[in-house]
TrEMBL record, chain A:
Its EC number is 1.5.3.24. GO terms for cellular component: cytoplasm. One of its GO terms (biological process) is tetrahydrofolate metabolic process. Residues 34-78 form the Rhodanese domain. Pfam families: DAO. It comes from the Bacteria. It comes from Ruegeria atlantica. PANTHER family: FAD-DEPENDENT OXIDOREDUCTASE DOMAIN-CONTAINING PROTEIN 1, SARCOSINE DEHYDROGENASE-RELATED. Its cofactor is FAD; FMN. This is Sarcosine oxidase subunit beta. Belongs to the SoxB family. One of its GO terms (molecular function) is nucleotide binding. It catalyses: sarcosine + O2 + H2O = formaldehyde + glycine + H2O2; sarcosine + (6S)-5,6,7,8-tetrahydrofolate + O2 = (6R)-5,10-methylene-5,6,7,8-tetrahydrofolate + glycine + H2O2. Keywords: Cytoplasm, FAD, Flavoprotein, FMN, Nucleotide-binding, Oxidoreductase.
Automatic annotation (TrEMBL), chain B:
GO terms for molecular function: sarcosine oxidase activity. InterPro entries: SoxD, SoxD_sf. This is Sarcosine oxidase, delta subunit family. Transmembrane segments: none annotated.
């Protein structure tokens, strides 16, 4: 069932009786070629690319709850590729390019909006750092544009330019960045994977991994044992729990990141904006709500809720950057649990267990990576070798000192 | 969260900074045969449990003591707070 303008008109004229559920609700088979644990954005994207690009159709996605009910439904929907380091930027730019063609690829409206992202700077040193980052982005084929204060003022006149402590000196813009509707991303990948024969099995919790003689034979679930030649784990946030079933300790801590949305306002923010002096990033949804967030709470947790000090910190950052939002009321706030890795960068790699593969450690930047993460994980699962843009995301980089530390804060997960 | 400081009584968690798993007290022996492996595991690998977790908190905006807090990572409930000094000595460090 393809979506098109013609289809919408036809359904409108015939009482919308032709819309059907867009993925099946199958019972698990006894055995699959590949099982992906985790029906979030990354797991569903993996299934999509496995079936569509790599031709693997005997694939299952096993999800504990309902698809899209985890972090893919809890993020702030920002899409960008403004990284600096060699290990990261080609991967995120690959992801950005996949985002640009995603709706055509999936035949699904993900509400991809390339409204741009602007990282503000407030000091000369920060300008130098952003210039360097922008140059690194351009060298890797991404787009970057350094704006001075007057150029920023023209586009965003409401910002607090002349703050005594943190005056806005300019910003680094990535015009191709923007936002996408996160739920639609999960649903679009699910629909596409299902149409290529992937079984999406919801309400099926993985309770164990069956490992014999160093080889993973399948997963024990609440719906019984399901065998597989290969098992891929894409459960970022809960990676520690699932990989513990294989006896692995990870270079990861689980932390909570809170996000917020205000009441609906008239259009005020033309792009995504990040504050350079505090941790605050904001965009405006199509419904009008200001969607924003800031720092993680900073302590290990698996609870999907945070505490008040961070709420205060984030809102202070927002109001100091754009005083006009001071009277806007907060509509909702929520928390999501993330894998905070030891260098702030993800892992897509084999594990010491044969037939068991891992995708995780996305810190609080997993959403923008969704298509490339799925693509690269599918590549690894299908070919047993890393995709060319994800060769640095190895487990052993911590042992060998090849860390990808964008922020340069070392092995302290709550600082990334 | 309120952390019940053993010396100062109940204090707001925002007065503290967080370091991580209290296993960081158990620094490996740098002269051991397997020191490279031991320091890799010490520096980078974590149990990251869902449930009871012993962790190091630093009372930065207070008396600057290090605490070992036992907290449930699924509920944030704190069941025990000790001075890290006492825990470290009980584990045989700094004798």
């Amino acid at each position: 069932m393809r979506y098109s303008g013609f289809r919408v008109i036809k359904e409108a004229l015939t009482g919308h009786k032709g819309w059907k559920p867009v993925w099946r609700d199958p019972e698990p088979k006894a055995h699959y070629d590949i099982i992906v644990i985790g029906g979030g954005g990354h797991g569903l994207a993996t299934a999509h690319y496995l079936s569509k690009v790599y031709g693997h159709r005997n694939v299952a996605v096993v999800e504990k709850g309902w698809i899209g009910g985890g972090n893919v439904g809890r993020n702030t929907t920002i899409v960008r590729s403004n990284y600096m380091l060699d290990g990261n930027e080609p991967f995120y730019e690959f992801s950005m390019k996949l985002w640009e063609g995603l709706e055509q690829d999936l035949n699904y409206n993900a509400m991809m909006s390339q409204r741009g992202i602007l990282n503000l700077f407030h000091t000369d040193g920060q300008r130098d750092a952003y210039t360097r980052r922008g140059n690194a982005m351009i060298l890797h084929g991404a787009d970057a544009e350094l704006l001075d204060a007057d150029q920023v003022r023209k586009e965003h006149p409401y910002l607090n330019f002349d703050d005594a402590r943190f005056p806005i000196k300019g910003g680094l813009a990535q015009r191709r960045g923007g936002t996408a509707r996160h739920d639609a991303v999960a649903w679009g990948f699910a629909r596409s994977a299902d149409s290529h024969g992937v079984d999406i099995i919801q309400n099926c919790e993985v309770t164990g991994l069956r490992i014999e003689n160093g080889k993973c034979l399948g997963v024990e679930t609440s719906k019984g044992f399901i065998g597989a030649n290969k098992v891929g784990c894409a459960v970022a946030g809960n990676s520690g729990r699932v990989m513990n079933m294989a006896g692995m300790r990870l270079p990861i801590e689980s932390h909570v990141l809170q996000a917020f949305v205000s009441e609906g306002l008239k259009p005020v923010l033309p792009s995504v904006i990040t504050y350079g002096a505090g941790h605050f990033y904001v965009s405006q949804s199509d419904k009008g709500g200001l969607v924003f967030g800031g720092d993680i709470d900073g302590y290990n947790t698996y609870a999907q809720r945070g505490n008040l000090p961070v709420v205060e910190d984030v809102c202070e950052g927002g109001v100091s950057l754009m005083p006009m939002i001071g009277r806007a009321r907060l509509l909702r706030m929520w928390g999501g649990v993330m894998d905070m890795s030891m260098d702030g960068s993800p892992i897509i790699d084999r594990t010491p267990v044969e037939g068991l593969y891992f995708n995780g450690g996305w810190c609080y930047g997993g959403f923008k990576a969704t298509p490339a993460s799925g693509y690269c994980f599918a590549h690894l699962l299908a070919k047993d070798e890393p995709h060319s843009t994800a060769t640095a995301y190895r487990f052993d980089r911590f042992r060998t000192g090849r860390m990808i530390d964008e922020k340069g804060v070392g092995n302290q997960p709550n600082l990334h | 969260m309120i952390i019940n400081h053993p010396l100062l009584g109940p204090r707001d968690a925002s007065e503290f900074t967080y370091l991580g798993d209290a296993s960081l007290i158990n620094r490996p022996d740098w002269q051991a045969e397997d020191a490279a492996d031991a320091f890799y595991e010490y520096g980078y690998l974590r149990d990251n449990p869902a449930g009871e977790h012993q962790e190091l908190w630093y009372h930065e905006a207070g008396d600057r003591s290090w605490l070992v807090v036992t907290r449930d990572t699924t509920t944030h409930e704190i069941s025990k707070v000790e001075l890290a000094r006492d825990v470290a000595r009980a584990r045989g460090r700094s004798k």
